[in-house]
Amino acid sequence: MLQYDKVIYEKEVIFVLSDNIRKYRKLNQLSQDELAERLGVTRQSISLWETGQTQPSLDNIVALAKVFGISTDNLLTDNEPASANAGVANLPAEAPQKKKSSVLIICVLIIAVLLLAVLLWQSGIFGSKSTGGHQSAATDPATTTVSTSTDELPENTTTQTTDHNEDKLPETKDLYGYLKNFVVQNGTINGDYCYYSKTADQYGGHDSEDFSLYYWGDTETIEFCLHSVIDETFSINFYLLVPKNHTGEYEYISSYYYRDTGEPLYEARGTITAGEFTDSYPLNCIKYIGSTDKQNEFMEISRQGVCDLITCLKEFITVENIEYSFLDFGFTKF
């Protein structure tokens, strides 16, 4: 019975810790990437801590408390901050007053503009026939004819709305918005993120892998992920990130990490230009973590994993009847 109580207590501490990390990160207006950079860990580690899948080491707990400007006791318990400013580190004391002043200035400017507009209207500057200018915005265009001149429309021509359909540019494809709605509608909400996950064999992968989509509320990115468990100690994930303003370029992340902590043994980051990428295209590497003598080997593993992820993405589009085609994602040569 005592052992059972201990397990319950540990689970409660884990839940409180993960919830507090997320809470104090938001109080300090930090994204997961920004917090990860301050601690010298990966964003994936922050994500795993906040969802309770792994726990930070004692050193990282101390570092977290220092970044948040609180004690470790505050971080490990569910006590509310002692004051409104507790848990918010390095914020200027005058910030609220400056914000109020800015709002007041904006309101005064708006009122001044409105008053000026009323005075100009009453003085006849807008809509006056003597000015020879455009018709008043308050005039009904359906009943008003335009005055005749050698450079104007014929006398019997009334103001009409020009049809611009012939010159209309093609509609911009909103991959980010569509995928975000797909995850929210079909996935599982967990705190400030939402995920959709299936075994990869449903999309042409292996039944030992998972194919997932993630939407994080504090970022403007959709993540495609191919997850594989290596053994009891390690897992490997391959990510493809779809930005809000999609231009055909994707960031990829390949992470071979410790399952209990989320810390990477090897990790590579870079970009992919979809229109140029093929299944034999080498990956560039902007950032690498790990042994340098293993880098070439890991980059080849990363290339294969990213190709497997893109293959699953292609099948996912077909199986789930996604409104956008594989070509809409920009992969014209894959």
Strand order of the largest sheet: 1-2-3-4-5-6-7-8
Tell me the strand percentage band: 15-25%
Mean pLDDT across residues: 78
Q: How would a crystallographer describe the biggest sheet?
A: 8 strands, antiparallel
What is the helix content? Answer: 25-40%
Number of strands: 8
Key structural traits:
8 helices, 2 domains, eight-stranded antiparallel sheet, alpha+beta, 434 Repressor (Amino-terminal Domain), single chain, 334 residues
Q: Can you describe what's shown?
A:
It is a single chain. The chain is an alpha+beta fold. It has 2 domains: 1-110, 434 Repressor (Amino-terminal Domain) (Orthogonal Bundle), CATH 1.10.260.40; 175-329, no CATH class. The protein has 8 helices and 8 strands, in the order αααααααββββββββα. The protein has helices at 2-27, 32-39, 43-50, 58-68, 72-76, 95-122, 175-186, 295-319, and strands spanning 188-190, 193-199, 209-216, 221-229, 234-243, 249-258, 264-273, 287-289. Strands 1-2-3-4-5-6-7-8 form an 8-stranded antiparallel β-sheet, covered by helices on one side. A hairpin with a 5-residue loop joins β5 and β6 (249-258). α2 crosses α3. The protein starts with a helix and ends in a 15-residue tail after the last helix. Residues 1-9, 92-98 and 126-170 have low confidence and may be disordered.
